[in-house]
Write a structure and sequence with these properties.
By secondary structure, the protein is mainly beta. It is built from six helices and 42 strands. The N and C termini lie far apart (94 Å).
Length: 623
């Protein structure tokens, strides 16, 4: 062999090695390495082609491209400007199907995090191009906002694609750092889960997205987790609240048995903790499990009082970031019997001194006459409403609605003996506040169920996250009526529980603006081949706390005749709950199955279902 031939062979081998190395490195960086300097100048290496502009968007044509989008987004490499993405065939730009269960794709691309989070929200433009994302598996275990997209930010655009057979794993754990988490739902630091998106900013464009046979899996859930619409976990546009209709149903309760259990756990585990950002420790607020939040009041000696909803604890004194006692107990995984998940720190409160009497099953709150110590409503305007200023009372925060004479139903369960509770009215003709609190102006609170009227409210307040500001009496832009219940005589009043529920029956498509262009469907052809397609406005919500689990699948199938069969499969535990609403605008015929059992047949305009851990299904239908 000549020297010249040998040199050529060596050069050929080196070229081959370099070429192979380049290919290997390109695949490696394209799939798993996201160095800042490389991303800064060459983001296009992670996609089929394109430079990320509106005229030349990044083309997503393979599973690893969407995986790369998730990773680049999570690392903050897409926050310097608005980038454009399009799901399409690399050559023809036609719609495509990306199957994440295809055995030929790398395993690590088959499970990835939601696109965008609270730190780096998705702020670009995602054009789905009528393509299909098939068999997606989304890992939301460490995220606050969970869906195919986690957090869609202001002015972003996400539109025009199908999501088929996705599984959204929304299993938040107590080990997840929460220091940078943001508030949902009037101050709650909860997870928000939706099939399409967890958190949707109010100014984002979000349209023409359709979901087929989806599943949310929270079987390993360890933290508070909820969904507003099923398709969407939380929308900033209305603060996580749906205005009007059955989905505006809300309820809360307080029982003496619940309080006894909670404060027994509190004293057993936080006895040496400091309370309310001061130097006093927990026994100052809970002297014993039978003496609830605060020391017993006397007419001559006003003492410091605390309330269930405002009590904060910390292992160190003067901790201005101390969490609420109840929230800390949930975070620590204590089994704080929630009586059907209806206790709400934002809605119901008991202020000391109030004792708990009786034994398991027949415990009651014992209230004494203290209304003469209350501040008058007229002195509170524009001030922070302080529950602790109302010793020996139950305080309710109730949302307003159009019917001032029917804000909801309330049920009182007295133990028997002693006096009765009464409302302390504070608003005069919806225009001014009372300047004094008089016994003869109070309204008796009856046993059994009654209707709450705005005329019995004490003040109106505006929500400021974890506090409330008293609004003028004539205000029309407030968040809650505050009702104050207290004993009016010298006898001790014993009440076992108070339950509130509001279930409006009126709902229109305008009330569901957030989901007017997204829907559950049976197949792509329902939309693509149907010029008369009508949105079903099918949506659901759920709420679970730590150590509870929930699995939900929803299928909507067209009937042979004009209508739909709806199949709902679910499994929930403990006191978690799940609800679904159908806004049947065109009065289509509908048959609804829950875990393969028919629960409704008809064509009512509004159908609402509520399911609990016992798999009990309550159905209400409205014309």
């Amino acid at each position: 062999m000549t020297r010249k031939i040998l040199v050529k062979i060596v050069i050929s081998i080196l070229v081959g090695i370099i070429t192979l190395s380049s290919i290997t490195y390109a695949w490696f960086v394209k799939t798993n390495e996201y160095d800042g300097h490389l991303v800064g100048g060459s983001k296009q290496v992670y996609f089929a082609k394109g430079i990320g502009t509106s005229l030349d968007p990044f083309i997503i044509s393979e599973a690893n491209h969407l995986f790369n989008l998730s990773k680049l987004q999570e690392k903050g490499y897409l926050q310097d400007k608005v980038y454009y993405f399009k799901v399409a065939d690399e050559d023809t730009l036609a719609p495509i199907t990306i199957d994440f269960a295809d055995p030929s794709i790398p395993t690590f691309t088959q499970l990835f995090n939601p696109i965008g989070d609270h730190i780096y929200p998705f702020i670009g433009s995602f054009e789905g191009n009528e393509s299909t994302l098939l068999n997606l598996n989304i890992d939301g275990s460490t995220k606050q906002d969970v869906g195919v997209f986690g957090y869609i930010g202001d002015d972003a655009t996400v539109r025009n694609f199908f999501i088929e057979n996705p599984t959204i794993y929304s299993n938040p754990t107590s080990a997840t750092p929460m220091t940078s988490f943001h508030e949902h739902n009037e101050g709650e630091i909860n997870r928000a889960t939706g099939y399409i998106v967890g958190h949707l900013a109010s100014s984002a464009i979000f349209e023409k997205i359709y979901v087929i046979s989806p599943k949310i899996d929270s079987s390993l859930n360890d933290m508070e987790n909820r969904s507003q619409y099923g398709l969407i976990g939380f929308t900033q546009a209305n603060g996580g609240v749906i205005d009007g209709g059955p989905r505006d149903t809300y309820f809360f309760s307080l029982t003496a048995d619940w309080a006894y259990n909670v404060f027994t756990i509190a004293r057993n585990n936080y006895l040496s903790h400091y309370i309310n950002t001061g130097i006093l420790q927990l026994p100052s607020a809970i002297p014993s499990v039978t003496q609830l939040v605060g020391k017993t009041q006397t007419n001559s000696t006003p003492l410091i009082n605390y309330s269930i909803s405002t009590l904060r604890i910390s292992p160190t004194p003067y901790d201005t970031n101390a969490p609420y006692l109840y929230d800390q107990m949930v975070l620590d995984g204590y089994e704080v019997n929630q009586q059907g998940s209806v206790y709400s720190r934002q809605n119901i409160d008991v202020v000391g001194g109030v004792n708990i009497t009786g034994v398991e099953g027949s415990r009651a709150f014992a209230f004494s006459k203290t209304f003469d110590k209350f501040p008058t409503p007229d002195t509170l305007v524009n001030q922070t409403f302080n529950a602790q200023a109302f010793p020996g009372s139950i305080i309710l925060y109730v949302r307003p609605n159009a019917d001032l004479n029917n804000l909801g139903t309330i049920t009182g369960d007295y133990l028997g003996g002693g006096g009765t509770l009464a409302y302390v009215p504070g608003i005069i003709n919806n225009s001014s506040y009372q300047r004094s609190i008089k016994l003869n102006n109070m309204v008796s609170f009856p046993a059994g169920q009654s209707i709450m009227s705005a005329s019995n409210a004490f003040v109106k307040v505006i929500s400021n996250g974890n506090s409330y500001t008293v609004a003028p009496a004539n205000s029309t832009t407030f968040d809650y009526y505050v009702f104050v219940l207290t004993n009016t005589n010298s006898n001790s009043t014993s009440i076992k529980s108070v339950l509130f529920e509001y279930s409006p029956a009126v709902l229109n498509d305008s009330d569901l603006e957030a989901i007017k262009d997204v829907d559950f469907i049976n197949a792509k052809e329902d939309v693509l081949n149907n010029p008369t397609y009508v949105n079903s406005y099918l949506n659901f919500g759920y709420e679970i706390i730590g150590s509870q689990h929930l699995s939900i699948e929803v299928d909507r199938r067209p009937m042979i005749s004009d209508g739909f069969d709806i199949y709902i499969f679910f499994d929930i535990s403990d006191s978690s709950f799940f609800y679904i609403d159908f806004i049947n605008i065109n009065n289509k015929n509908m048959t609804i199955y829950v875990n393969n059992v028919s629960v409704f047949i008809g064509n009512n305009r509004v159908i609402t279902l509520r399911m609990n851990a016992n798999e009990t299904v309550n159905v209400n239908a409205y014309t």
